[in-house]
């Protein structure tokens, strides 16, 4: 009943959401998913305000169906020049491997939506059908402003306490991000203990405890996985890694090759790449991180400035294994095809599993 409600409220045909992957999901991908009856999502989280606006408008040119815009509500970064210099010195041998030197300083490469008034005003003006929050919540004024425009709101939770805060804030649905999910953990407080609840366990707990719909996310790659989440009471399922290898993805060749070659157990949670815990395909960067003391990493996304510089240096030297190749635990089940074709396959598998 809840599942039908969320689908009707947003205006979808199927309870299948494509995750809004910054740097990977494009307006073309989002439009293809939405045209196929799911909820597409261009990844604007790390984009400038002007680029984000262009991506929203481009998606609108490609589809009149609803789509989701996701924003990062992380705690604004606190610069610490001494900490950052120490981190760069720790990374220096890695840069030297590729005949490069680390940057002389690091920058906060994008602002939190919570402190970016220009991004807030842009989103209020564009008012997409769905807006979702990751890493926390914006001020109540922003939530109410978006709701007054008829925007359906979602936010990521990794625990019951976060989900209860989301519900209390008046957000319409919770995305239950399990430990299996690729990309960044949506923890409100990155310094707090993380119970690392798996997707089925977190989904079942939130369904039993909340009065708003729950969207399951993490490790799901097939229509059978979606059906399993729906049986737990989820209103929909959100898949990210499943779409990374799609034709419309912005993932580069190295990322695609690594995903296609992934085997079971091929992912690792690490904070070394960006400054916050995130699940990545095991690669050269994660292998280096395993040998390091990573208790003194600069704040997110300041540390990400170093990670991106290292990836650029490695790629210039012909090495593609030092990027942020975010992927969930189901990466080995990745299937490369057009996003619309993947949607059709997921729907068929889901319907078969639910019979």
Structure commentary:
The protein has 14 helices and ten strands. The protein has helices at 2-10, 27-35, 49-62, 81-96, 117-126, 140-148, 160-168, 199-209, 223-231, 241-244, 253-260, 284-290, 302-316, 339-354, and strands spanning 16-18, 68-72, 130-134, 152-157, 173-177, 183-184, 214-217, 236-239, 267-270, 278-281. It is globular and about 55 Å long. A seven-stranded parallel β-sheet has the order 1-8-7-5-4-3-2. Strands 6-10-9 form a three-stranded antiparallel β-sheet, with no helix packed on it. The mean pLDDT is 96. β4, α7 and β5 (173-177) form a beta-alpha-beta unit. With 355 residues, the chain is α/β, with parallel strands linked by helices. α3 runs parallel beside α5 (117-126) and α9 packs across α14.
Instruction: Give the N-terminus to C-terminus distance in angstroms.
Output: 17 Å
Question: How are the strands ordered across the major sheet?
Answer: 1-8-7-5-4-3-2
Estimated helix fraction:
40-55%
Order of helices and strands: HEHHEHHEHEHEEHEHEHHEEHHH
Please tell me how large the radius of gyration is: 19 Å
Residue fraction in strands: 5-15%
Average pLDDT score: 96
């Amino acid at each position: 009943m809840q599942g039908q409600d969320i689908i009707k409220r947003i205006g979808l045909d199927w309870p299948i959401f494509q995750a809004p992957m910054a740097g990977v999901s494009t307006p073309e991908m989002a439009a293809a998913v939405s045209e196929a009856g799911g909820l597409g999502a261009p990844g604007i989280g790390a984009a400038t305000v002007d680029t984000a606006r262009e991506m929203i408008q481009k998606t609108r040119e490609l589809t009149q169906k609803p789509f989701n815009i996701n924003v990062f509500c992380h705690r604004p970064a606190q610069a610490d020049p001494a900490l950052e210099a120490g981190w760069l010195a720790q990374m220096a041998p890695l840069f030297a491997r590729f005949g490069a030197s680390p940057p002389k300083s690091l920058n906060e490469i994008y602002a939190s939506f919570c402190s970016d008034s220009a991004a807030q005003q842009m989103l209020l003006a564009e008012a997409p059908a769905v807006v979702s929050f990751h890493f926390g919540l914006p001020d109540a004024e922003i939530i109410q402003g978006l709701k007054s425009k008829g925007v359906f709101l979602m936010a990521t939770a990794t625990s019951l306490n976060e989900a209860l805060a989301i519900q209390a804030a008046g957000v319409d649905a919770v995305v239950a991000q399990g430990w299996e999910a690729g990309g960044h953990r949506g923890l409100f407080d990155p310094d707090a203990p993380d119970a690392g609840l798996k997707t089925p366990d977190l989904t079942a707990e939130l369904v039993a405890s909340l009065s708003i719909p729950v969207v399951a996310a993490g490790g799901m790659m097939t229509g059978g996985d979606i059906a399993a989440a729906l049986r737990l009471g989820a209103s929909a399922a959100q898949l990210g890694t499943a779409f990374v290898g799609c034709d419309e993805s912005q993932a580069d060749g190295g990322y695609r090759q690594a995903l296609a070659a992934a085997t079971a157990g091929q992912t690792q949670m690490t904070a070394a790449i960006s400054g916050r815990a995130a699940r990545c395909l095991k690669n050269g960067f994660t292998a280096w991180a395993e040998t390091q003391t990573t208790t003194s990493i600069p704040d997110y996304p300041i540390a990400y400035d170093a990670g991106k510089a290292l990836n650029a240096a490695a790629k210039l030297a012909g090495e593609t294994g030092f990027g942020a190749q975010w992927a969930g635990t189901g990466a080995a089940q990745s299937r490369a095809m057009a996003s619309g074709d993947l949607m059709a396959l997921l729907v068929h598998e889901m319907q078969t599993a639910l019979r």
